Model the fold of this input.
Amino acid sequence: MKEHIRLASRESKGKSIIRIGEVAIGQDLAIIAGPCSIESPEQALTIARAVKAAGANLFRGGAFKPRSSPYSFQGLGLEGLKILEMVRKETGLPTVTEVLDPRDVCWVSEFVDLLQIGARNVQNFSLLKEVGRAGKPVILKRGMYSTLLEWLQSAEYILKEGNPHVVLCERGIRTMETYTRNTLDLSAVPALNELSHLPVVIDPTHGTGRPSLIPAMCLAAIAAGADGIMLEVHHNPAEALSDKDQALLPDQFARLVPKIKTLREMIESWSGTEG
Ligand code: PEP
Ligand code: MN
Done:
């Protein structure tokens, strides 16, 4: 297996730090928050201001949505990207958005700071190669059926094209369980930290699909050594155009962030004393 993850493997280098504006992912705790989809300038700005005030350091929002049904909201496309640009200007938060199509990578890169490759595209090798060539920082989600090694080989496609700015995001895998939307694999965090130098972020929103479980999963992720979390937040989840059942309210998010930060500081202080 080792020969297939030459660049992604831990042995090839020490922990990677991915710099997005002032945030150094892999060193600073990444708190990526925002709606599933960008719906309007007002919606995006309301949520962005709230998550920034609560301590988020990156803003997420989909302009191109990979929906199971072709009749579901597909995202605002270019209009959504312009809104993301406006949000960055207004709040100073770097932005994250998903790219679905290799033909869009180059121009979408002009609008945002971090490109997301979603679970459904983890083995879209043309897309992986294209984001590799674009050189833009990438957050690569785990596929719903990916093993850790398959996922790392997907990261390898990006690295091999000369783009070292890759962050991994565990978002749950499909199992027989139906109470949760997916099964969030928190063992992926220490396992990836053994296998790879790439930073690892946890997405308990898609991982559980249940707001009530999100705080516990965030804290467990930080305890396991995650480099950050990605959460969906919406001020009016009932009216959200996608993933309305799983978003946290801004005040729930605001109550959670200090706990996450305190736990992270505690863990950092332990590793500082281990010598
Ligand atoms: C999302 O982040 O909104 C999303 C579609 O995620 P995933 O690819 O993990 O399903
Ligand atoms: Mn979503």
Notes: The longest strand covers residues 30-34. The domain at 29-274 is CATH 3.20.20.70 (TIM Barrel). The CA atoms of residues 77 and 225 lie 35 Å apart.
